[in-house]
Amino acid sequence: MAGAFVRLGDGLIGLEGAVDHRTDEFAGGTDVRTWPITASLIVRPLPIVFAAAGLGWYNTTVDYAGDALDDQTETNMGVSIRSRCPIAAGAHAEPGGRRAVSLRRLRF
Q: What is the model's pTM?
């Protein structure tokens, strides 16, 4: 998987944009490529705690080997929420986080 992101703002409020790319190869020469494009608003009430909410366009392309089947691309739009807060575990703090994504299909 490869990707890039940009974060703006290091105070209480920030913005983040990201693009990722992943290719999975299957037997018979079929490849599945996914590339989400996301934008999020980040709130940091403390330096070690954050919550983020944003929109994402989640694209998936199936490239079939040969000419028998046409390649297919599907685009879904989704809302995501993320959070991170260290969780106390005895004398140590463990990083912990939660993520949820809700997708619906867009038709062009």
A: 0.69
C-beta separation of 61 from 70 below 8 A: no
Rounded to whole angstroms, how far apart are CA atoms 74 and 34? 10
Tokens linked to 87: 């969780």
- In a 3-state reduction of DSSP, which class is residue 66? coil
Q: What is the pLDDT of residues 21-66, one digit of tens each?
A: 999 999 888 999 999 999 999 999 888 888 899 999 989 999 988 8
- HSE of 93, CA atoms in CB hemisphere, 13 A: 7
- Other CB atoms within 10 Å distance of the CB of residue 81: 14
